[in-house]
Amino acid sequence: MPFRLFHTTPKPKPIFDVLGTDMHLHLIPGVDDGSKSPEESIECMNTLASLGFKNIILTPHFQFPRFPNKEYDIQRRYADLKAQAAEAGVQLNLAGIAGEYRIDTGFQARIDNPQFLCIKDKTVLVEFSLNHPMMGVDEMLFDLQMKGYDIILAHPERYAYLAIDGDRYRHFKDAGVYFQCNILSISGFYGAECRRKVLDIIDRGWCEYLGTDTHNTIYARALVEASNDHTVQKILAKHKFLNSEL
Ligand SMILES: [Fe+2]
User: How far is the CA of 215 from the centre of ligand 1 (A)?
Assistant: First the structure.
């Protein structure tokens, strides 16, 4: 990191109070690539509270074979974490447990025998592979909708193989898929290309939800910086998101 004279750690600004609910976090300890301990989760939650969030819906990865999580086990761990957060005096409402479901080779089986932990009612948060397009995505999304589910696609800006000017994003919007973009994409945490894409997606009116995708305290610290980012502040002031309806 370059040496910066008079560099001070930014203070959290509670600007995310307009969203109210963060609906994308990996804070169930030890079940995916997110938080490693209840202490780390609670530290992240305290930061999120200082940034203005009131409610969080936790979304551990369900990804075959890397994170072979089971819904009943995740629910049990969520209940444990909720009790630990209450005991620690966390000023955030743990409002629900859902999943971030990877559209992978195991996803069709999930559609055929649905046990999804949903963001709300019958709304499922899904993600694609970050690096490789997967065959059969459109058919699986359609099948899921035919079973009565609404779909939120996590961080559409992070799929490097999807071109903003291509027809894929337009196709998903035409198919009624909601988009959840990452706040840290706006502040440049994932790089310049991802930032360019997320600004474009939001500008086109395609982004219904914002999430933090918090995995650990590195993300929490980056969110404090993002709360001081003028572009993030401007977007929150200008655009209406649906987080508060969750
Ligand atoms: Fe995630």
Answer: 8
